[in-house]
Specification:
Elements: H1 8-18, H2 39-46, E1 54-56, E2 77-82, H3 84-88, E3 102-106, E4 114-116, H4 133-136, E5 137-138, E6 141-142, E7 155-162, H5 163-167, E8 181-182, H6 184-194, E9 203-207, H7 210-217, E10 229-230, H8 235-240, E11 245-248, H9 266-271, E12 278-281, H10 286-295, E13 299-303, E14 314-316, E15 320-322
Parallel strand pairs: 7-9, 8-10, 9-11, 11-12
Antiparallel strand pairs: 1-15, 2-3, 4-12, 4-14, 5-6, 7-13, 13-15
């Protein structure tokens, strides 16, 4: 699709119409593109396990994380409710010498490795499947498409597209610069370079190298700033391939700065409320990418269930890839 950077409204309207999945799975649907990930696709994914080596694709959840207050997001605050000191001093009141520790965590649900739920983004007041946004998400949470509905289903064939390694600077680190817009052509070329296919029901992981750079140089504006990411023009590819979900190692999935003047996350506006696509952000793909480059296998079993937090529009996740 063409892109007129001076007309975000027109481009968004055109793409919303062209790539809408409203009504595709019925008026009551709450899963969106996860409908593509069926039992057969899970069996296909499970059959990919050969070596049994596993990778956590999550950043650690702690106060040293990437957040610095953008959109009032903070890093996790972890507090102990009971400690070994309490046990040693006999302050817990338990019999026969038993003691224990307990803790609590407070954090925004999208402060680190996470999924965007279908109630996270709206298009002109419309939520996924054409519902009125004000009737879907209220102060009580997402009353219709809460992320708890997705909890049983996010497991299947994972595919890594290490775009940074495939098309990045061969002489330096396998990383893309901030502002680099990944096109459908880049995604296709990367899949071909990796010898892997992308299609219906796949969970696609796109590595840009942005997280690796943040870890090396400091967080800086990693959470909320400029970044490589998917071009708005990939909307057609995302719709045509019928993938179940997609995740990146950046905070915002799409390229920043955005490709239009006076715009904010226009690709989100297409893929979440109109396409029903599940999006993951801030995933740690570096160790998996290194292993894939070493053995030449870029497909694997992937399980990445969101926490079934009733009414949530996003969820932390610890994705696990098994090869």
């Amino acid at each position: 699709m063409s892109l007129d950077r001076h007309d975000p409204e027109g481009a968004i309207a055109e793409a919303a119409k062209a790539y809408s999945n409203w009504g595709r799975w019925g008026e009551d649907d709450v899963l969106g593109t996860l409908n593509f990930l069926d039992e057969a696709k899970r069996r296909e994914g499970a059959a990919l396990v050969r070596r049994g080596v596993s990778f956590s694709l999550s950043q650690r959840f702690d106060m040293n994380g990437p957040q610095k207050g953008w959109r009032r997001r903070t890093n996790p605050v972890h507090t102990m409710l009971d400690t070994g000191t309490d046990a040693a001093l006999g302050n817990q009141g338990f019999p026969h010498g038993i003691g224990g520790a307990d803790d609590v965590i407070a954090m925004p649900l999208q402060c680190s490795t996470q999924w965007d739920g279908l109630g996270h983004i709206f298009d002109h007041g419309k939520a996924w499947n054409g519902r009125d946004a004000e009737k879907v998400v209220t102060s009580a949470g997402d009353l219709v498409t809460g992320i708890e509905h997705m909890a049983p289903y996010v497991a299947g064939r994972g595919v890594l597209l290490d775009v940074a390694r495939a098309i990045g600077d061969d002489d330096g680190e396998p990383e893309l610069p901030d502002g680099f817009a990944i096109t459908a052509e880049h995604l296709t070329a990367t899949a071909e370079a990796h010898g892997v296919s992308v299609g219906r029901g796949d969970i696609v992981l796109v590595r840009t190298g942005r997280l690796a750079r943040a870890r090396r140089d400091g967080w800086g504006d990693y959470a909320g700033g400029d970044a490589p990411g998917l071009s708005f023009t990939t909307a057609g590819w995302l719709h045509r391939t019928e993938i179940a979900a997609i995740a990146t190692d950046t905070w915002g999935f799409e390229v920043r700065p955005n490709e239009f003047d006076h715009a904010f996350q226009p690709l989100h506006q297409i893929v979440i409320p109109n396409m029903g696509l599940l999006i993951g952000e801030m995933w740690d793909l570096d160790a998996l990418a290194a292993d894939c480059a070493d053995d030449g296998v870029y497909e694997f079993w992937l399980t990445a269930a969101p926490l079934p937090i009733t009414g949530a529009v996003g969820s932390p996740v610890n994705p696990v890839a098994v090869k």
